[in-house]
Amino acid sequence: MEDLHWFVLYTTARAEKKVAQRLEDQDIEVFLPLVEELRQWSDRKKKVQRPLFNGYLFVKTSKINLWKSLQTPGAVKFVNFNGEHATVRDSEIEMIKRILETGVAIETDNGEIAPGQQVKIIGGALEGMEGECVNKGNKDYFIIRVPGINQNLIVNIPRKFLLTN
């Protein structure tokens, strides 16, 4: 039996939740990171859950079974880099889950970020995580790279909780 890996599936626009549900209905393990935000309409405000990474979700399967996932309505393709299917390590999936569980403010960024100072979080909900610190304006941000989809998670962390390596 071939090893299972987290592959990155690209979906049609705004179809991430439907594709994730369809895959789960086929007993395929899926991870769709969602963040809650308050949306304002002309007549009301409502909390909605939106995908953390627009157009992407993670599918845990073997290379042999990738085709089965692609047959799902709304699935477009698996992300490839240099001719190889992009994979995300279990530890990166767990890190994303842990960050989402804390409820800290989070945003994504897919731009190239120059390598910065490596730091370890020494306090707060994300204590023990290691990553990169960059400065944006007057705030310090902690970056966790998800190379499988060329995305970065950017979390605002008080400077007092960052210890340089």
Automatic annotation (TrEMBL):
InterPro entries cross-referenced by the UniProt entry: NGN-like_dom, NGN_dom_sf, NusG-like
Source organism superkingdom: Bacteria
Keyword tags: Transcription, Transcription antitermination, Transcription regulation
Gene3D superfamilies given in the database record: NusG, N-terminal domain
Pfam families, per the entry: NusG
Limits of the NusG-like N-terminal domain: 3-100
Keyword Nucleotide-binding on entry: no
Transcription keyword on record: yes
PANTHER family cross-referenced by the UniProt entry: KOW MOTIF FAMILY PROTEIN, EXPRESSED (PTHR30265:SF4), RHO-INTERACTING TRANSCRIPTION TERMINATION FACTOR NUSG (PTHR30265)
Name this polypeptide is given: UpxY family transcription antiterminator
Organism, scientific name: Belliella kenyensis
